[in-house]
Amino acid sequence: MTNLSTSALRRVWQLLWGLLAVSAVAVAFGAVSPYLIGDPENSTMPLNPDAPAHFLTIVLHAAPGGLALLIGPFQFVGGLRRRAPKVHRVLGRVYLICVVAASAAAVFATMISTSGLAAQAAFYLLVAAWLYTLAQAYRTIRRGEVALHRIWMIRNYALTFAAVTLRLYLGLGVMAQTVDPTLTFEAVYTASAWASFVGNVLVVEYFIVQRALRPLVGRGRGRDGASEVGARRPAEHGSQEHGSAARAPVAEQPV
Ligand code: HEM
């Protein structure tokens, strides 16, 4: 690849990262702030009249969820990770705590949600995938497998980003209701809840195969390319805490 196309590609990734960061900040502030005032009257979600704790569960879920959404984009900036690995580690731990707290509260919010069984099933699945990918990301970095840690964090943040895509699909669904008045809000909400993470998962899996795994298959012809993904290296996580070994040649981060 020529230098020109490499720098053009870099600009595309920077633009995409900018869009991701701006939409994450917009949703983190726009959707979460009504819940920080502490008045159930401000809830943008219909509250369950039989569950007085509904509002509280959403507050306890949305506040750490919003913080995780804000932290995520900065964790993917390679330059920041290299220049300030300690900041990356501290923010990583804060992100981890936020996702665990937001997940726990989301389980209770889902139980008492008035959104219907199909949407509730989507939220339970999302919580399970959110925690599983987080656990894998944590396990791999503790073993010093930086390249695998990065892949699991991309997967995890794609699920965190469901908070953004959910609101995008909800907006489109509400617009669709004006075209088709028979479309109920429950149908729009359920479809948006499922699409919010299924779409993100498909996009990032494509990205992971094309950017991280495909180059290894080409490079590793005649040897076990897959083992390179799990190779350990200190890199920017560099401390002994994260182990040490050879540099893994998985595709570098775009930003
Ligand atoms: C990725 C895993 C997530 C799951 C499974 C999840 C699940 C839920 C559930 C079940 C509710 C309550 C819905 C109801 O009561 O009917 C909810 C509401 C909410 N969530 Fe999440 N959520 C996730 C991520 C996030 C993130 C990262 C944010 C950060 C902005 C967030 C912000 C909110 C807000 C603000 C509400 C209140 C409803 C609204 O005003 O739109 N969620 N979420």
From TrEMBL:
Keyword Nucleus in record: no
Top-level taxon of the source organism: Bacteria
UniProt protein name: Uncharacterized protein
Transmembrane spans: 12-35, 55-78, 90-111, 117-135, 156-176, 188-209
Biased amino acid composition, Basic and acidic residues: 221-240
Organism of this sequence: Actinoalloteichus hoggarensis
UniProtKB keywords: Membrane, Transmembrane, Transmembrane helix
Chain segments carrying region Disordered: 219-255
